[in-house]
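Minutes, structural biology subgroup

Action item carried over from last meeting: produce the structure token record for Glutaminase (Microbacterium esteraromaticum). EB confirmed the sequence was re-checked against the source entry. Recorded below for completeness.
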Amino acid sequence: MTSTSAVLHHARERLASVPRESLGRERSSRWRGTRIVRAGQAWHLGVLLLTDDGVLATNEVLRAAAPVRRGYAAESARARADRRAQAYRGGFAEGEVVHVGWETIDLATVDAGGVSGPLALVDGEPHVRWAPRAPFVPLAGYLDEQISLAVG
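Output recorded by EB:
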């Protein structure tokens, strides 16, 4: 049996020279309004965000952008532009990739045979579900593929 932590540790070693992307958290205040502020960095590996000491499940990914006035054909486009502006107001550079709404994955739960986020232990080996209705696949192989894309 290979522990999930061991598989992720090996992935971190292979990613040492690969740039990381920013993590953000929503903050609201009466004077500054809603904004997205820095909360760290991680390597983006598909449905996973790998930090120095943990792993997170991805959620919303956006690029920071200065607010601009324009007409929108759809309310959803206006909402996306507002989220990008919130990241910009929070201190992210124009065009910087920001991950928001991520969730911490409990590796102890996974190694004990449970499920946490997209990770689970299947037949004694760590597996990942790369889409909500997809089957679980071996985590080591999934990370090999994602790392080869990141190193690219």
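Discussion: The chain has one domain: 4-151.
Next step: EB to file the record with the rest of the batch.
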